[in-house]
What we know:
By secondary structure, the chain is mainly alpha-helical. Helices cover 52% and strands 3% of the residues. It has a two-stranded parallel ribbon with strand order 1-2. It is globular.
Amino acid sequence: NHKYFYFVDAAWFGSAHDSRIYKLSLGKCHVSHIYDTSGHIVAADSAYQLSPSVMKPYTGETTRTESAFNTALSRVRTVMTENVYGRLKGRFPILREMRHHLKYSQRIVVACCILHN
């Protein structure tokens, strides 16, 4: 709701899948702690593993209620991810066309997230 970045892991190539990054990230422990203390969860796509702190859509044949849930969760994910990244790229145009060495790209991404917060 506050549109802050709580954890940034810029050590991966763009081709790495989000669920793999999350699974191997220190941010996973951070999210679990936030859930334990505040009840906030991560709204994830179907590739993520379901846990008390990660909510993901129903898969396969779904009921009308499950389908409505999936639609609502998709909308939340869009606001949480696409909108905040769009806003970040709007504030920091350098992020639009990243053509730098990986080490510098990582530093640029982290710096922009810090400045955004």
